[in-house]
């Protein structure tokens, strides 16, 4: 019996990531793999890789083989637009952009307005489409190459995807989606069909596809990997990230329905300060005296963990903070101030890029070089691969 | 226990149509209804109505109410492009055209290339799309009004239909499609989703929709009728036809996989003659002498039944043939010659119209007045109703 649950729709309990590798049957990202990647990337690895936020993979070694042979690869990730995005949601996009920058790879980003509408009883299609638009701005703000990136909303791009989707759907039956996703007799027939659609972009090019995503999406890729070769395509490769822990502690994941657990990309500086001061679970001692004497515990301190996972890329600086906090020299309040400052600077820049994204949305979705090619081509005709 | 089976995918045994009305819970088309229709149509009813080929309905009386109130209605029918079309396949289209001519109503014709591909294990999508094109030519040859008719292939028009389809799909779960269509754990997820798509065109206009179709399609409309009002639309009305019996006798229906059971629209005059002479089940006697003495039985004679159901619209002439055959004056060979001549004349005209249809396909599918409106509008925006 596990004491935690991870599915595409739910994360409960404190996730044991080593156990998750065994449960999902994936592989750990080893030092060895990271060193190969570093050589190929010709420079320091991204903090999300260096610090083990991406911890698990499938066939990532084969992506490296392909790179060594000069074959190349493409990237695919996505977002279910269920509401405003929080900082945790950006993690796969930040790493995807890093891969794109280093290897000049094409990036496909699927915004699954259909899936969110079908999955959430109370969400209207109009709301899902509204969030699809808003989230697209946040994703563009990450800074993808406008000529090598195609962002698409399912309910808009379905006309191109459907013929390929039904070819995939014909090979997936109810028993399989019940077993993989836990669907039941009450699951609506739109959601039953949806897994076929999420697989389509893995066939956008006849190269290996790398998916940076939170590990809860892995079930989709298991089905893809069973089918891909019968279609003449590669099994997808994936690298899986841990969840950025909720402010309130390591249980579950950040949730839009519990605002105290997350920092949203739209939170203003004052809200950020209040949330972190009030909710960020601390590894410090109850009083300053005790803290100075016994020291804090950065391993369970969410502010420190956020710095480590994303917000303090300087390894030396992070070590200083860790030592200082552990020794009791740095107080919880000081640690929190440090994080608040980092986050508010990050969000300020994000907001500026997000405003500029309004003018760029047509480029990523319609008029950029890759976007235009994807609207013109026939996905069943592999001679039109970008 | 019934001794026959009628589902969207199978017809077995000799269909008892009166029983079918009870099993499906539809209503018989009464003399009364036909008289009301005749008054509204301002002229003689089509032979398919006069002779009871269309025998069952749902809410057809409400279509007549709407007509009397000057509200109007629209027509929807379709075709699963599994192969070449035979004469039986034309029946719903012939009656649909008659309704269009009499009431200047819009007609929507869905060609379900996706469903046929998903349903038939050995059919490729490319084949289904090939037959979609070929069948469209046969349907255009029936003579619909090019500005009031929109013919669309699912895999082409899906981009417009999908947003509305998922709104419908969200209200249909696996238990329902299992109960209604007999789907099982081995049914593929494309086919599980398909019923939502077949319902979409019933919401193309905020008027009542009349569906002339063979009765095996009724299960789809039962689901539509449960949902329609929650979407602010009308429950569909339908009139159901009997199956034109196979040449070989009253068991089952004509089948593309058994060429001796059917006359195809592409059969040349010699093939028509051979098939009817060789296979058309006869109500005549074993020898001429016995036939002259005892007479034939038109009630079980397929040649006579085909004349009655479709090919001899002249009531007086039909009566003469019936009497003459029953008395023994007309021999089976003479009856068959009469039918062969009728069919060959029909097919010759059909072939000519089918050749001309090649130039018209773009009008019905893209450029005609209704087709253009349907490609321009947003199906979720009811203000754009044609």
Structural class by secondary-structure content of chain A: alpha/beta
Number of strands of chain A: 9
Q: Which radius of gyration of chain A do the C-alpha atoms yield? A: 21 Å
Percent of residues in helices of chain A comes to 40-55%
Count of alpha/pi helices of chain A = 17
Instruction: Give the DSSP E fraction of chain A (strand runs of 2 or more residues).
Output: 5-15%
Quickly give the CATH architecture of the largest domain in chain A.
3-Layer(aba) Sandwich
Estimate nothing, just give the exact number of structural domains of chain A. Answer: 2
CATH superfamily membership of the largest domain in chain A, which one?
Answer: HUPs
What about the largest sheet of chain A? 7 strands, mixed
N→C terminal distance of chain A: 46 Å
- Write down the secondary-structure element order of chain A: EEHEHHEHEHEHHEHHHEHEHHHHHH
> What would you call the quaternary organization?
homodimer
- CATH topology name of the largest domain in chain A: Rossmann fold
Q: Summarize model confidence as the mean pLDDT of chain A.
A: 95
Low-confidence stretches of chain A: none
Principal-axes shape call of chain A: globular
């Amino acid at each position: 019996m596990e004491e935690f649950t991870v599915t595409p729709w739910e994360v409960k309990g404190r996730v044991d990531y080593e156990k998750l590798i065994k449960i999902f049957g994936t592989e750990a990202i080893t030092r060895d793999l990271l060193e190969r990647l570093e050589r190929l990337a010709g420079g320091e690895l991204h903090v999300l890789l260096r610090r083990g936020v991406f911890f698990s993979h499938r066939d990532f070694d084969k992506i490296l083989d392909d790179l060594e042979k000069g074959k190349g690869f493409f990237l695919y990730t996505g977002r279910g637009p269920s509401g405003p995005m929080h900082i945790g949601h950006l993690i796969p996009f930040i790493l995807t952009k890093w891969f794109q920058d280093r290897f000049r790879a094409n990036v496909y980003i699927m915004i699954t307005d259909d899936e969110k509408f079908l999955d959430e009883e109370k969400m209207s299609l109009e709301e899902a489409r509204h969030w699809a638009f808003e989230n697209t701005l946040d994703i563009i703000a990450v800074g993808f190459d406008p000529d090598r990136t195609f962002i698409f909303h399912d309910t808009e791009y379905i006309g191109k995807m459907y013929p390929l989707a039904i070819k995939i759907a014909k090979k997936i039956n109810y028993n399989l989606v019940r077993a993989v996703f836990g669907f039941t007799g009450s699951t609506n027939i739109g959601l039953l069909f949806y897994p076929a659609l999420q697989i389509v972009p893995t066939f956008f090019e006849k190269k290996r596809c790398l998916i940076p995503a939170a590990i809860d999406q892995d079930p989709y890729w298991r089905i893809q990997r069973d089918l891909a070769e019968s279609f003449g395509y590669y099994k997808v490769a994936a690298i899986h990230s841990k969840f950025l822990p909720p402010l309130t502690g390591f249980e579950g994941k950040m949730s839009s329905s519990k605002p105290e657990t997350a920092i949203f990309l739209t939170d203003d500086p004052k809200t950020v300060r209040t949330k972190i001061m009030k909710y960020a679970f601390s590894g410090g001692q109850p009083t300053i005296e005790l803290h100075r004497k016994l020291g804090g515990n950065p391993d369970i301190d969410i502010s420190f963990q956020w710095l480590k996972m994303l917000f303090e890329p300087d390894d030396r600086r992070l070590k200083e903070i860790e030592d200082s906090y552990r020794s009791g020299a740095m107080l919880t309040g000081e640690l929190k101030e440090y994080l608040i400052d980092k986050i508010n600077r990050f969000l300020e820049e994000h907001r500026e890029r997000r405003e500029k994204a309004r003018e760029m949305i047509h480029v990523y979705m319609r008029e950029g070089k890759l976007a235009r090619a994807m609207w013109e081509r026939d996905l069943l005709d592999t001679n039109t691969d970008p």
